[in-house]
Structure formats: structure tokens, C-alpha cells
Amino acid sequence: MNFAIILGAEGEGVSKTLLNKADFKVKIPCAIESLNVSVTCAVIVYESIRQIHQM
Fold it and tell me: To the nearest whole percent, how much of the chain has pLDDT over 70?
């Protein structure tokens, strides 16, 4: 399975043009206002690998 992970900057995020091209959009619920982009990437990569191995 091929996929790309697109992460946006805290202030501007991802452009609407790119968001409209995405098959899936993910939002990570958290108790704080925002996560550092590297932490966000780690969470998404971890969960993606976990789900792939469950198949």
C-alpha cells in the first residue's frame, strides 16, 4: 500500500487545494492546543504501521 503523509505548519496548515485532493484527512484529538509537527508525524506513522500489521 502506498500513501503520503502531508503535514501542515501550525499557523497556515495545509492548503485547501491539497486538502481537496486528499483521500483521507486525519485530526489527532489532544488535550493541548497543538502538537509539534514532528510529534504529530510520529503518532501518525506509528498508528499507520500498527494498522498495516493488523491486516
Answer: 98
